[in-house]
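Hi there,

I know you've been waiting on this one. I reran it after we fixed the sequence typo, so this is the corrected version. Both the input and the resulting structure follow.
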Amino acid sequence: MGLSSNHGTPMALADATHKPQDRLAGALAGDMAAVNALIRERMASDHAPRIPEVTAHLVEAGGKRLRPMLTLATARMCGYAGPYHVHLAATVEFIHTATLLHDDVVDESAQRRGRPTANLLWDNKSSVLVGDYLFARSFQLMVETGSLRVLDILADAAATIAEGEVLQLTAAQNLATTEDTYLKVVRGKTAALFAAATEVGGVIAGLPDAQVAALRTYGDALGISFQIVDDLLDYGGDAAATGKNVGDDFREGKLTLPVIKAVARATPEETAFWQRTIQKGDQRDGDLDAALAIIDRHGTMAETRAEALAWAETAKAAMRQLPGHDLRDTLIDLADYVVARIS
């Protein structure tokens, strides 16, 4: 399928030159090389070789580096001449990597980005402790910028991420979970870092408060749209493309938006099904297909996708408040592309 970009032309999703994240990567190649070098330098440890081993497994697994690119792009488009946008981008990647290490332990995941997870290759203790190390490194990098405002934004994001993860843990398997609670989880576990990544780019560039707020709104809305799409892909994505097993959220009893909407409209028979499979965790062969059939019957995949589209529109409107720039246009296209990952 194709969506219209902000220029009104179809996006050829199969053509890499039209993928906004690839355009960002090309435009920011020099800065990203500096970020990667800084990451390799700061994840080193003279006393605990396990740290760079575990970190390198995840950091070098071929992730899109979307979050640090958001920081680099917003700083550059706002006229920042360096060098601390590189430190902030590395900070954002370290925070993200630390949360992934912790998430895989909490979720008992076996696959991340198409590869075995660190906790599977090493152990849970190593994943948790190395995640803690990366959090500490991220705070060292923040401090080096000399900006208390930047430190406040990123420290708040780190706390909000942890809060979102705990909320998700308490909401898991709870069929009373509402769409409002789901949004709070998403804002915490995903959108908080997107918002911080874009906001600090504007702060380091010295933008007026109104434009910094627009950048934060963009990141927040983009992150929400991104996570909603990820949750949709869990029920209808290609495991080879996503690097995750289809149905993992169902198996883990996570209440994501397609299921929350389906539970709200469930017949007594369907309610009994959700109680057994999600609430009690009693899952059997064929249950994932049955869950997909219920979701399809109520049309909640399409409704959820519509919400992702609406958040993408919010992101685009916020970004248009910034002065014209090629990177600004690419970031607007990125909001479209995030939703275009699903058909």
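Quick highlight: The chain has a mean pLDDT of 86.

Best,
R. S.
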